[in-house]
Design a protein that fits this description.
Shape: rod-shaped
Number of strands: 4
Strand content: 5-15%
Order of helices and strands: EEEEHHH
Bound molecules: zinc ion
Number of helices: 3
Structural class: mainly alpha
Length: 136
């Protein structure tokens, strides 16, 4: 092996010029594999770390969207006239979800708004109900 030649971090018998852009470890053809989404070639450890990170990220988005789902659920409950628990729940959850809007997945904002709109309908239907009762 000539001086200055690099070897793969995992296969010391294999000379290589390529290295992982993430951790800088040199790697042979076998070790550095292309990540389909980004087109970069990463070493096995970095690919694993990346996947673990993506999994965490997905879970995080799920949790963030959950509050928006709650807003929608409460909104549906609030459609029943006089069920003010639903309106309060939808408004609280909807506002909390919208305050986190930059972190929500695309659907989250729509869900939160749907919940708020549904609770609005609930309030309206109750108002109508009350109005009808007052007339008769
Ligand atoms: Zn790496
Ligand atoms: Zn290797």
């Amino acid at each position: 092996m000539t001086a200055g030649a690099q070897v793969c971090a995992r296969h010391p018998d294999r000379a290589t010029t390529a290295h992982c852009p993430r951790c800088g470890d040199f790697g042979c053809e076998e070790c550095l594999q292309t990540v389909p989404e980004s087109g970069t070639r990463l070493c096995p450890e970095c690919r694993q770390r990346r996947e673990a990170h993506l999994r965490d990220h997905d879970l995080g988005a799920d949790r963030k969207n959950r509050i928006a789902w709650w807003a929608l659920g409460f909104g549906l409950v609030g459609l029943v006239p006089f069920l003010w628990v639903g309106w309060v729940g939808a408004i609280v959850c909807g506002i909390v979800a919208l305050r986190r809007a930059p972190n929500l997945d695309g659907d989250g904002v729509g869900l939160a708004i749907a919940g708020l709109v549904l609770s609005g309908f609930g309030v309206l239907s109750t108002a109508l109900f009350v109005a009808l009762l007052a007339v008769t």
